[in-house]
Amino acid sequence: MEFELWWLLAFPLFFALGWLAARVDIKQVVTESRALPNSYFRGVNFLLNEQPDKAIEAFLEVVKLEPETIDLHFALGGLFRRRGEFDRAIRMHENLLEREGLAEEQRLRAMSELGQDYLKAGLLDRAEQVFTRLLDTPQHGVARTYLLEIYVQEKDWQKAIDAARILEKDTHKPLNAEIAHFHCELALLEAAKGNPDAAGKALAEALKANRQSVRANLMAGDLDAAAGRHEAAIADWRLVETQSAAHMALVVDRVLGSYRQLGRLPEGVQWLRALYARQPSQDVFGALYLAVSETEGAAAASQLAREELRRSPSLRTLDRLLEAQLLDAAPGERELLQVEKGLIAAHSQRMMRYQCGSCGFKAKQFFWRCPACGRWDSFDPERREAEN
Ligand SMILES: [Zn+2]
Questions:
Q1: Which residue of 13, 143, 312, 375 shows the fewest CB atoms closer than 10 Å?
Q2: Tally of domains within the chain
Q3: How many Å apart are CA 57 and CA 61, to the nearest integer?
C-alpha cells in the first residue's frame, strides 16, 4: 500500500472527532446528573461507604422529590422485601399502583411485586387475590407459580394439584413428584378423618402421578398395617427398595413390627440381615441390632456391632457395642461401662439428625418437604451424626 499525503491530515481530524464525541458525552452526563436531586448522590455515596440504611433514606427522598424514578421504586421495594421489612415494601408497591398514567406493563409488574410482599409477609389471602387477578394477564406464568406456593402453604391440596397440572402444561416442566406428594397429603387427611378407603384411593392417585413415589408405598403399608393386613403391609414396604434403597432406613422398623405382629420375627430378622448386606446404613443397623439382640442374644448383637463399627465408625454404634458388652459384663466392670454408655448415648442422641440436602436444615424428624426452604424430597432419608 502506498503512503498518501492526505493521511497526515486525516489523523488529526480523527483525534478531533473523538475529542468532540467525548465532550458531548460528558456534557450529557453532567446535564442529566444536574437533573437528579442531591439526595441521589448522597445515596450513592452512602452505598459506596457501606452504609445501606442511610443510602435507603437518601433514595427514599429521591423517590419523594422525583416520582418519575420508577425503577428506583421497584429496586427499593424489592430491597425492603429481602430485608424482611414487608410493611415498607408493601407501601412502596401500593404507591406505585396508585399512580396515574403508569404504563400497563409496569402496573402488572407492581401487582406481581405486591403479591410477593403479601406472600412473604404471610398474608396469604391477599397474595392469593392479587395473583388470581394476574391470571388473565401476561404475568400469568409467575402468578400461577406463586399461587401453587400459596395453596401448598394453605394446605389446600386439591387446588395445588389443579394448579400444578396447568403449570406443567404451561411450562413443560414435570411436576409429577410434587403432585404425588399432594395426593399423599390428601390421603393423610382422609386417614385422619377415619376414611381408609378414600385414603387408599388418594395413594393410588399418587402412584399414578409418580410411580416412583416412595411415600405412597410407605403410606399404603401404614394403612394396611393399621387394618391388621400385615402381609400386605410388608409387601408394600418392601417395594420401597425397588424405588429408592436409601429410603429403606424409614421402613425397616415398620417391616419388623409387622413380622412381630405375625409372630414371625426371626423371618423378619433374616430379611433385615440380607437388606443390611445390600444396603448398609446406620439406621438399618440400628433396627437390625435391636432385633438380633432380642432373637439371638447379646453375643450375636455384640458381634454385629463390632462389624458395623469397623464399616462405619460412629458414636451410636459404639453405644450399641457398650450396651451388648454391658449384658455380659462382670459386676465389677458394669458400673464404669454404665457411665461410659450413658455419656455416649446422650451425646449421640443429641447429634443424630436428618438433614435437608438443599439448604442444610437439620431436624430430629424426617420431612418430605423441608420446613426451612420448602423443597420436596430434599431430606436425606438416613440420619447422620451432625456436629450441631
Ligand atoms: Zn431445606
A1: 13
A2: 1
A3: 6
374, three cell numbers = 420448602
Distances (CA, A) of 124 to 85, 152, 159, 190, 290: 17, 11, 14, 24, 47
Q: Does residue 334 fall inside a structural domain?
A: yes
Q: How many Å apart are CA 99 and CA 103, to the nearest integer?
A: 10
CA 74 to centroid of ligand 1, rounded, Å? 28
d(CA 373, CA 136): 29
Residues with Cβ < 8 Å from 142, sequence gap 6 or more?
Answer: 112, 134
> Hey, is 385 helix, strand or coil?
strand
Measured in Å, residue 368 CA sits from the centre of ligand 1 at 10
Tell how far the Cα of 380 is from the centroid of ligand 1, in angstroms. 11
Asked if residue 319 belongs to a domain, the reply is yes
Cα(54) to ligand 1 centroid in Å equals: 34
- List the grid coordinates of 294: 432380642
- Establish if 307 belongs to a structural domain: yes
Q: Do the domain assignments include residue 317?
A: yes
CA of 139 to the centre of ligand 1 (A): 28
Q: What is the pLDDT of residue 183?
A: 98
pTM, 2 dp: 0.76
Q: Which of 297, 216, 294 is nearest to 260 (CA)?
A: 294
Q: What percent of the chain has pLDDT over 70?
A: 87
The 8-class DSSP code of residue 229 comes to -
Provide the domain limits for residue 335: 244-349
CATH number of 271's domain: 1.25.40
Our CA angle for 239, 381, 159, nearest 5°, is 80
Average pLDDT for 178-189: 98
- pLDDT at residue 179, rounded to an integer: 98
CB-CB neighbours of 113 under 10 Å: 21
| Residue 359 alpha carbon to ligand 1 centre in Å | 4
Span from the CA of 143 to the centroid of ligand 1 (angstroms): 23
